[in-house]
Amino acid sequence: MAINKYQGNQKAQRFTMWLSLVSMAMIFAGLTSAFLVRKGGGGNWSGFSLPSVFTFSTFIILFSSATLQVAHIANKKDNKVLTAIGLIITLICGIIFCKLQYDGWMLLVNEGYYPSHNPNPAPQFLFVIVVMHVAHIVAGLFFLTIASSRALWLLRRKDSQITMEEIEYKENGNLIIRTDLLTLFWHFLGVLWVYLYIFLIFNLK
Questions:
Q1: Sequence-ordered list of residues with C-beta below 8 angstroms from that of 22, at least 6 positions apart, any chain
Q2: What does the pLDDT average to over 145-159?
Q3: Is the four-CA dihedral 6, 12, 15, 21 of positive or negative sign?
Q4: pTM listed for this prediction
Q5: Cα–Cα distance measured from residue 113 to residue 160, given in angstroms and rounded to the nearest whole number
Q6: Whose CA is closest to 83, among 17, 91, 107?
Q7: Of 42, 14, 50, which is closest to residue 199 (Cα–Cα)?
Q8: pLDDT in tens, 56-94
């Protein structure tokens, strides 16, 4: 009975996650559509190129998706060491991604493409898109931090048969983390950034 309840919760949580992902996709579709409409309006719009640091950040987010997938598979196989390593590397990559996004923005600001009080609306649209995406990355980092902490805690319990999966499904847990949902969310953010990066490469100029 308890297992059925967990399975029901899993389905409900997965459904909720998919609804959230669809909502996020619609938000960014709206933002990129507004970007094209405003660009087509002309006026003070002046395009520019993305600094190469954004390219590096794209590789980092793709690499982090791979490491999180490794962690997820390891978690299912109860490989605590590989789970912890994969989660921690993903967490570090996520932090590096945010730092590279910040560095890219600083380069643009130094070139005069600042978002505030700029007659050119292009930096403002870029700023909103990038910040919105980074905000979701930060949310992912929060859950990655919790999952990594749990994974490290499990490594200290070598004599225990408690697996990370059992903890994830623990009833009434206040900080329930499931690597499948976390992996789904993180992959979505990676694919979303690749879309945004390609969109900006072709439309920002």
A1: none
A2: 79
A3: negative
A4: 0.84
A5: 55
A6: 91
A7: 50
A8: 999 999 999 999 999 999 988 888 889 999 999 999 999
Which range, 1-15, 161-175, 188-202, has the best average confidence (pLDDT)? 188-202
Could you write out the three-class secondary structure of the chain? CHHHHHHHHHHHHHHHHHHHHHHHHHHHHHHHHHHHHHHHCCCCCCCCCCCCHHHHHHHHHHHHHHHHHHHHHHHHCCCHHHHHHHHHHHHHHHHHHHHHHHHHHHHHHHCCCCCCCCCCCHHHHHHHHHHHHHHHHHHHHHHHHHHHHHHHHHHCCCCCCCCHHHHHCCCCCCCCCCHHHHHHHHHHHHHHHHHHHHHHHHHCC
Taking the CB of residue 139, how many other CB atoms lie within 10 A of it? Answer: 12
Tens of pLDDT along 93-119?
Answer: 999 999 999 999 999 999 888 888 888
What type of residue is 84?
A
How many residues in total does the chain contain?
A: 205
C-alpha of 145 from chain center = 13
Helix axes 179-203, 122-155, angle to 10 degrees: 160
- Residues 53, 58, 64, 66, CA torsion sign: negative
